[in-house]
Amino acid sequence: MTTTLITGANKGLGFETARRLVGAGHTVYVASRDAGRGRLAAERLGARAVALDVTDDASVTAAVRAVEAGGGLDVLVNNAGIQVEMGDDGQVVAGAAEVTAEMMRRTFETNVFGMVRVLHTFLPLLRRSGAPVVVNVSSGLASLSRMTDPGRPGHAYAGVAYPASKAAVNMVTVQYAKAFPEMRINAVEPGFTRTDLNGNSGRQTVEQGAEIIVRMAQVGPDGPTGGYFDAEGPLAW
Hints:
The chain is an alpha/beta fold. The protein has helices spanning 12-23, 35-45, 57-69, 101-128, 144-147, 161-179, 206-217, and strands at 3-7, 27-32, 48-51, 75-78, 133-137, 184-188, 228-230, 233-234.
């Protein structure tokens, strides 16, 4: 039995990924900052709930203990994220002229430092698995190649904090994959999906967005590692 933990899994892409992996036979931990919402989501899915705030050391450590007591971990999906420069209508309200160091700090605290905190703390459990997998949810906005190409839709995105944080996620992915070659560690781009993150302004459904997350959560020991993928295949950095 494969055991999987998904951060930010009480709604959106995390919830849909959990639903699909439960259906694929995984034992899934729905990790949520709000313990009550996490429990409700887990009950709906037939999953296990664990309280986990990626920005809090004690919370992450307690989650590791709970998962270890439950038998260990094979797959970690780092899905939790924030996008502070986007308004409720899905429009960027803080471009290069408006972004502040505080906005950058808040974004990186969840999207980068939080991801590293979770990965670092769960690493001992993952290394005990016979086939450990890590999926880091990134974004197409993290691609320097795409963001510097006027012909790409993402080129027009004016925000700074979110793309910068996801570019950092990609670099962390590459470095961890090199450090732990026995693990499959990849970054994925779900696409512009309708979620609370963007005021439900995305062009595709959570079912479509979760496709690449679910696929990479199920890679075998001979699968890719250190890569950056969307549903169509590898992406340019």
